[in-house]
Amino acid sequence: MIQVSLSPALVIGTGLVGASVAQALTRAGVEVHLSDARYSHAVVAASRGAGTLAELDPGAYKLVVVAVPPAALASVIAEALATYPNATVTDVGSVKGVVLAQLRATGADLARYCGSHPMAGSQKDGPLTASPDLFVDRTWVITPHDTSAAQSVLSVRKLAELCGARLVTMAAQHHDEAVGQVSHVPQLISALVAGGLLDLPAEHLQLAGQGLRDVTRIAGGDPKLWRQIIAANSGALRVELEELHADLGRLIEVIDDPDSVESFLDRGRRGTRALPGKHGSAPSEWAEVVIEIPDAPGALARLFTDIEDAGVNVEDITIDHDPSRPVGMLGVHVDPTAAMSLTNVMTAKGWTVKP
Amino acid sequence: MIQVSLSPALVIGTGLVGASVAQALTRAGVEVHLSDARYSHAVVAASRGAGTLAELDPGAYKLVVVAVPPAALASVIAEALATYPNATVTDVGSVKGVVLAQLRATGADLARYCGSHPMAGSQKDGPLTASPDLFVDRTWVITPHDTSAAQSVLSVRKLAELCGARLVTMAAQHHDEAVGQVSHVPQLISALVAGGLLDLPAEHLQLAGQGLRDVTRIAGGDPKLWRQIIAANSGALRVELEELHADLGRLIEVIDDPDSVESFLDRGRRGTRALPGKHGSAPSEWAEVVIEIPDAPGALARLFTDIEDAGVNVEDITIDHDPSRPVGMLGVHVDPTAAMSLTNVMTAKGWTVKP
What we know:
2 copies of one chain form a homodimer. Chain A is an alpha/beta fold. Chain A has 3 domains: 9-170, Rossmann fold, CATH 3.40.50; 175-274, 6-phosphogluconate dehydrogenase C-terminal fold; 283-348, Alpha-Beta Plaits (2-Layer Sandwich). Chain A has 13 helices and 10 strands. In chain A, the strands form 3 sheets. Chain A has a 4-stranded parallel sheet with strand order 2-1-3-4, sandwiched between helices. Chain A has a 3-stranded mixed sheet with strand order 5-6-7, covered by helices on one side. Chain A has a 3-stranded antiparallel sheet with strand order 8-10-9. In chain A, α6 (172-196) crosses α10. Chain A is globular. At the A-B interface, α2, α6, α7, α8 and α9 of A face α2, α6, α7, α8 and α9 of B. Chains A, B: Keywords: Amino-acid biosynthesis, Aromatic amino acid biosynthesis, Oxidoreductase. Chains A, B: Belongs to the prephenate/arogenate dehydrogenase family. Chains A, B: One of its GO terms (biological process) is tyrosine biosynthetic process.
């Protein structure tokens, strides 16, 4: 069995992501050394518990994490492979294919290199906002290539695990296609909408609500960072943007036809539900107990108190309708095993429960 | 001087917006009556303190607020004008021009009608999520027309004031153009991006982060409600969407050119800063005090403690660089009148402050 030790580690680049990785490793007991071309960043990171600025003999490092801007990745990785002869070298860049191609073009032995991409960050930047918890429960993609040594892959897996992330393994090209779709395209579309705001009179902008702010939030990200990401993935992005361009053209053609617009909107809503995690279990998993609400002030508050006293966990609440009777009805969605018990308790307390 | 009284008021339609208006009016001491074709909604709203289901003589009402879905607005407003002979009638619909045109086509006297649009809501719906605070500090547009009586305009102004909103007055057509730009277009673009997700493999979707969730959040809104809004404003929307379509086409043409991409992204970032409110004061208003950070664990924590003890309000913190010296420097942005005092206190405590 291959033993994997990451200590001592060197983190090159102490912006938000680098400093957060360093904090997480330090907390996990790894001896972490820091380096940054912008010395102030390294000092701030060190002062926030990310590691030390002291230097070791280059042969001592077991792991080097390169967390520099995308355009500098390949050269800093190649230099790290040459400088630190016993270290696994990884990076945390948002695009993997171009970097791998550039590294291959150098002719270097890449057995000790395995790329990775922790899917966390912020439109904020720099070590002041770093956190050792930045990657907890976030996706961390590792992108081994055909000449990555097993030891290198295991070291990067261990790095992601120590940071508390969920591991996903993909080929570099496949990763770039995926992040193009779920990260780079949304970034460009957010900038498209935000850029359009500059043409509007201030009087119109004062009508902006939370929806517009959500859609345009990521457009506040650093253009100098994002230009590098877009440049490194422009081939995949062109394909995706052309599809959206065609979809938008079709929407414009049917904008006067409410049925077509509703289909378009419905497709969008189904898309939001396809995103994992946030949108929870399907309603069909719950049982619905329908309770009549008397037309009296405070009835709903009493109803909720009685449901709470029943000790049943409420998953969702909907308002139900009976077109034939003027009566208020609330659908209480609960675990199917608790539905009978809730029905009995509420009936006993005098509520009318629909059979 | 014209006396304005809104009591008793009738709210027709007790979804999120109607029930919230009713709760706010009730809290302000207005006697509020509720009506809803979906009786359950009215019962739930009443039970949550929005008003009473009891009916008065039609001549008694001073104000009628119509809060029904967009497609039903014109007919319900016309019916309200006929049924309640002494009431100012307003609505809370998202689109004003079409409704006004439909009302004019009925030939009714519209002196007692003045449209309005509180800019608040949610992708959630229904009276269960209603709140009397929904409109506090939110924009509320009123759209008087050329035959609105002064009494009607004043009544609707008072309604918005009692709800705690910020008043903006616009012509209906002008309002529709503005909300098309800042609300309906973002809704459609969010749905465009979200709809594209349905074509992606689940493996790609698991790489989705917060940025994509923000961009697509409002696409989770009700397609049956939004189809009505889009239909009522499709003329203005077509123009806006065609501009975005052209902008997107131009982006695709230059996607391989990093300078052009950066210009595009920079324009987007400036757009986010054009939004009022959220993005605060320009950094140039603050004075920067630059303090050297020693390379020692905990230095930053001590620095922040000393700044706090100095009793100075910190507006922003940046990391500064001196390319010529390996030293960490923090820029502390404060009110210009406090900069000298901070410099003196920090120097006295032994910190090196850049002159």
